Amino acid sequence: HDFSRRKFPILHCFRSLIVKETAELQNFQTIPDDLLISTYPKSGTTWMSEILDMIYQDGKLEKCRRAPIYARVPFLEFKCPGVPSGLESLEETPAPRLLKTHLPLSLLPPSLLDQKIKVIYIARNPKDVAVSYYNFYSMAKGLFPDPGTWESFLENFMDGKVSYGSWFQHVKEWWELTHTHPVLYLFYEDMKEDPKREIKKILEFLGHSLPEETVDLIVYHTSFKKMKENPMANYTTLSSHHMDHSVSPFMRKGVAGDWKNTFTVAQNERFDVQYAEKMAGCDLIFRWQV
Ligand SMILES: *[C@@H]1O[C@H](CO)[C@@H](O)[C@H](O)[C@H]1NC(C)=O
């Protein structure tokens, strides 16, 4: 495969592409042992994908360097003319497979839920998500329309008028799913605080055990610094037409609480009001820094 020439999905077109391709996506059949990584965008998807691939490869680094992260963990709804789709990539992936999605539940292929496929969901506080998403829109010029000013982007984010829709709905509906499905619901901030503790939760959820030194190795190699310099994880295998890392690198800061450097006091107050309204009655608790 020449991964550098593989195009990346046109994210802002996803909605229409999915609507067009709905039958194909909806008819997707899982196979036993599939594991789904689900997140709203910019919440630690690539981080979790690398952690899980390392677990699946028993910490063998050379194996994890076999291909870029988006080829090791196929992107379920990826669909772009002239490029292998997520579904096509999955057909070539040997079991046990890791799948990635950002889909809201309403668009998820039913087989995943019917077959009670295990899900690892990661949620991240929405202020950091909004800032990260804005930077991503700005650097991934070949994938997104111009995000406009930060001020207008933040309004659109709060209204769910961005790719993949409302953050609020996404985190809440996947949280609800934990009542009826095998979902391990994790938080980005907890992973920053103590990655080893969270990796151990993942191992327990998978019913998989690894020697302590392998767990330490995984913690080390999935640190922000290590992943940023890993060409199989940092997305520099894509052409600069799709992602321009000189505008803002894909691996930008990887911290919790960075929103404070972007939000104005007024924006923060407005966000808090919206947050309280939209999260009313939900028992999810987010941490705004660690
Ligand atoms: C990606 O990894 C390569 C190889 O280590 C490194 O040279 C490059 O600076 C990294 N790119 C970014 C944008 O982090």
Automatic annotation (TrEMBL):
It comes from the Eukaryota. Keywords: Cytoplasm, Transferase. It is found in: Cytoplasm. It is an enzyme of class 2 (transferase). InterPro entries: P-loop_NTPase, Sulfotransferase_dom. Residues 32-282 form the Sulfotransferase domain. Pfam families: Sulfotransfer_1. Signal peptide: none annotated. Its EC number is 2.8.2.-. GO terms for cellular component: cytoplasm. GO terms for molecular function: sulfotransferase activity. Belongs to the sulfotransferase 1 family. This is Sulfotransferase.
